[in-house]
Amino acid sequence: MPAKKSKKKKKSAKTTSNILRFLRSERGHFLMGVCVIFIALFMLIGMISFFFTGAADQSKVANKYFIDLIIHKQDISNWTGVGGAFIAEALINKYCGVFSFVIPIFIGIIGVRLIGIKTISILRAFILCSFILIWGSIFSSFILTKIFPDSHIIWGGSHGSVLEQLLETALGGIGVSLIIILLLVVFIIITKQTSVGFFKNLFPGSNGVPKSDLVEEDDFEETEEDNEIIEKNSVLSKIFNWFKRKKDKADAAEDSLEEDNYLPLNNDLQRESSSPVYTPPVQNKPILNRQPRSIDVEDDFEVVIPQEEAYQEKRSSPSVQPIQNREERDELTASDVEEMEDYDPTKDLSNFHFPSSDLLKVYDNTGKGVDMAEQKANKDKIINTLRNYGIEITSIKATVGPTITLYEIVPQAGVRISKIRNLEDDIALSLSALGIRIIAPMPGKGTIGIEVPNKDPQIVSMQSVIASKRFQECNYDLPVALGKTITNEIFMFDLCKMPHLLVAGATGQGKSVGLNAIITSLLYKKHPAEMKMVLVDPKMVEFNIYSTIEKHYLAKLPDAEKAIITDVSKVTQTLNSLTKEMDDRYELLMAASVRTIKEYNEKFRKRRLSPLKGHRFLPYIVVIIDEFGDLIMTAGKEIEMPIARIAQKARAVGMHMIIATQRPTTNIITGTIKANFPARMAFRVTSQIDSRTILDMSGANQLIGRGDMLFSQGSDLVRIQCAFVDTPEVEEITQYIGKQQGYSHAFELPEFVGDGGGDDKVGSVDLSDKDPLFEEAARLIVVHQQGSTSLIQRKFSIGYNRAGRLMDQLEAAGIVGGTQGSKPREVLIMDEYSLEQKLSSI
C-alpha cells in the first residue's frame, strides 16, 4: 500500500509540474491571455447591456446572491445572462458607477500583455485606471446624478455617492467642483510631460513649454525593473534607489569632468536660420554609460561642459553667460544629462494644426456624367464608323471618368492598328465630339483605346481629393494629389521621386489651378518645419495669395522685403542662393557620411549629429516658378544655368523644382531643361509641335481644356482631370494657417555674393574695371534721355544682371541718378558734348 501511495503522489506531482511548465511557456501565456481577453469582453458586453436592460433586471438581481439567481432561473434580460447582469449591477451600482468600464478594459490590457504585446505598460494602465475609477465615481455622482435623477443607474456607484456627499457637506457644491477640476489638472501634470506647456499656452504672454517636469511621462513606462518593483511592493524603495543612482552618477561624473577639456557653448556656434531651431546634443562617445539629455539654461547663464557633451537644446536663442558656480555646472552636466528624446523639428510649432478639408468647397455633381443611353449611342457610332471603313471589332467596353469616357475595342485578327489610328477625325465627326484621342495600342493591354469627352463633365473638387482615404493615409515625403484619372481613381505622386516637374499649357487651360492644387496638397500634409517653398511670380498676382503664410512655409533672401519673388533681378540672385544652399547641404551630407537628406535628418533626429559642427535639420525646399518663359526672355542664360544645376544635383539634398510656362517652345523648354525634368504636366496646347516639345509625343493638342491634362513620367502617360481649387478656397486655407503661431521670420536662404554684383552699393563700384559696353551704354542713355536698365538690355541684347551692373557704373560715374522705385533714373548729362567731356575725365 505505501508503494502504491508513493507512486500516485509521484504521478500527481509530475502532472502538476507539467501543467505549471505549460502555463509558464509561451503557449501557456498566450492561452491565458486569450482567456482573460474573453472574460474582459464578456464583462464589457454585460455592462453595456446594463444601460438598456438594467431597469428590467434590477428588481431580480438587486440584493441577491449569484447562486440564488441561477437556482431559481430568473428571467434575465441582460445580453450576457445572469452572470453579466450580476457583474454589471455590482460594479456599476454597488461600487464605482459608470466609470467601472475601465475595469474590463484593464483586465483586457493584462490579457494583451500575456499574449506577448510588450508595448502596453501594466503599471501605467493600473495608475490610470485607478485614478479614473476614483475621480470618475465622484464626478459622476456630483454631475450625472443631478442631470438624470430618475435613472435606474447609480451614476457614481455607492463609492462615489458616499465620497461626494461627504465632500459636499464639508465644502459645498462649488468646493466639490473645484476639487474635481484640481484632481484632474494634478493628474495630467504628473503623467504628461508636455502638459505644463499646454496649460501655460492657454494664457496670453506665456513662453511655451516649461524647462523641466517633476515627473516625466517615461517614469510611468514599464521597464525591465517593473517586476522587481512590484515584488518589493514599496514606493519608498523605488524612490530611494532612484536617488542613490543619481548620486552615484553625479559623483562619478565629477571625477571625470576634472580631466576633460572644456569649451564654451556660445550662440555664434549655432547656424543662423529662418526659424528657431532646437539644437540637439550629439553623443560621440558614451560617458559613464549614461544617455545624453537636454540641458536647459537660464537666460543669464553660459554652460561650460565637457567637449564630448557640449551641446544643448536651444529654444529661442537666449543670451548665454558663464556659470560661476562649479557645483551648478556639475549639477547640469551630470544630473540633467541622462536621457534625451529624439529631436523633434516640429517642437517650435507644436500647436500647429493642419487645415481641414472643410475649408474646401464641395461641388454638386448630381445628374452629371455619362448615362447608359449616351454610352450605348457612342458605342454604336464607333462600331458603325469602323465598319464603314471595313474594320470589324470583337468587343468594346466603356470606362467612365469625370470628364472623359474610355472605350476599349479589340479589333479582329488581321486589322492594322495604323488603319484605326488614321480614323481619329472620322470617329470624332461621327460622335460630334470636341476632340477624341486614340491610344493604339493601350500600354499593357491587348486593346485600342478611344477617349471621348463627356457631354456633361463633372467637376473634380479639391475637397474630394484631399478627403480621400488614399491621400489621408499616404506616407509620401512630398505628397501631391493632382486629381482623378479616367477611371475615377485619385492620382497622386511623390515629388521626391520625380524629382522635378515641368508644367506647360496654353493660357486659360488650367495651369495656374494645377499649381495651386500642388501647393494645397503640400500644405495639407507637410508641417512648416519640414518644408519650405520658394515662390517666383513674374506676373505678380498668381502667388500673392500665399504671402500670409510667409512665416510658416516661405523662404527668401536675408535682405528681401517680400517672400514672393516678382523682381527678375531677385530671381537670379535667389536661384544662385539656392545653388549655394545646395552645395552647403552636400557638405553636411558628406560630413555625416550619408547619401540622402532622409538619412541625414534621421541621424539628426537620433541625436547623432552635433550642431556644434554645423549640422542642422534640413527641411525640404520646393521651388515653384510661374511664367518661366518670361524669365528666359528677360535674363536668358543667367536664369537657365542655376536652374539646370539645381535640377541636376539637388534631388539628394531635398530641393525640388516646379517650373511652369505657357509658351512651350524649344527656345524656352531647351534640351537642358527637358533632360533634368523627367516629370511633365501638359495641359491643352494649340499645336502638335508644342505637345511634342513638352511630352516628346502628341496628345496634349487633343485635350479638351479646363483642367484636362496629360501627366508623363518616363514612358508612362496618364490622362487626368485636375482637381479644381478656387481662389477663395486658397484664401481660407492660407488665412487659417496664417492666424496660427509662426516663426519670427521667413526661412532665410544663404546670401549669395556674385562677381561684381549688380546689387552692390554705388560706393563699392570700381570704375577702373568698367564694362566694355560702358561708353556705348552712356551714349545710349544720354541720347534717349532715359535711365532704364531694360533699355540697355534690349539695345545690347544682354542679361538683366549685366545691364544692372552697367547702370550702377553709370550712376557711380555721375551720368544717371539713383533709383526712384519703378520710375526711370534721372539722366544727369543733357547732351553728347557734355558726355564726352565726362567720359574723358573718368
Structure in words:
With 842 residues, this protein is of the alpha/beta class. Strands 8-7-16-15-14-9-13-12-10 form a nine-stranded mixed β-sheet. A hairpin with a 4-residue loop joins β7 (479-485) and β8. α6 crosses α7 (157-191). The longest helix has 36 residues, at 26-61.
Topology summary:
Blueprint: H1 2-24, H2 26-61, H3 66-71, H4 81-96, H5 102-115, H6 122-147, H7 157-191, H8 195-201, H9 226-232, H10 235-257, E1 262-264, E2 304-306, H11 326-336, H12 372-388, E3 393-400, E4 404-411, H13 417-421, H14 424-431, E5 437-439, E6 448-453, H15 462-466, H16 469-473, E7 479-485, E8 490-494, E9 501-504, H17 511-525, E10 531-536, H18 550-553, E11 555-556, H19 568-592, H20 597-605, E12 620-625, H21 628-635, H22 637-649, E13 655-661, H23 671-676, E14 679-683, H24 688-695, E15 708-713, E16 716-722, H25 727-738, E17 747-748, H26 774-784, H27 789-796, H28 800-812, H29 832-841
Parallel strand pairs: 9-13, 9-14, 10-12, 11-17, 12-13
Antiparallel strand pairs: 1-2, 3-4, 4-6, 5-6, 7-8, 7-16, 14-15, 15-16
Helix pairs in contact: 1-2, 2-4, 2-5, 4-7, 5-6, 6-7, 10-11, 12-14, 19-22, 27-28
